[in-house]
Model the fold of this input.
Amino acid sequence: MNSRERVLAAINHQQPDRVPIDFGATGQTGISVCAEYRLRKYLGLPQHDLDVFEIIQMLGVVDEDLRRMMKSDVIGMNHPEDSMGVYPNGKKKRFIMPDGTPTLINEGNEFDILPNGARQLYPQGDRTAPPSAYMPEGGYFFDIIDRAEEYDEDDLTPREDFKDFFSVMSDETAKYYERESKRLYEETDYAIIGNLAGAGYGDPGALPAPFEKHPKGIRKFDEWIMAQIMYPEYV
Done:
């Protein structure tokens, strides 16, 4: 069995030749760039700046040599826009982690290294907006900064608050998925999983919206949890 056949057999409750493995294909099965850099060194694989596919968690793209060595059966089809709301333009810039791990992020991302060694990112790479993600010195990922203003519980406006959060996919994004899914299907024998984004309803990694310049409404995670009971009409 090849990887795609193996995963499809398991999904269809058939007996594969072995248990399928997903190593690094999604934001939930990904690997920290810092861990990946050390793993590549341990395995004797070539060292290089690691491309980041999920910038809040700082998850690294798993290259083909490592994917094959780990016997992974799955490859991710990622959303074109990163979790800071930045679209790739084909160019990358260097971002050095606190432990020295060299990485590459989308060129449009803007970040500062603060006097205390911490790092902060700006939504959509726009420095006119408040920073929306913070990595402390010695950290391995970004914490999302709560930035939403106080809301009026007697005048809740969920459709206005989340109008930029949930939206119809653009033609450009749809065409990207068309091209990328066809490329991965024809050029690899992996099972393809779509990291399509836009479906993280109440996701603690998305609700504060690090990708929005000025998020509104109930955006703090603890308040969102309480809103299930206090403001069910809002939810």
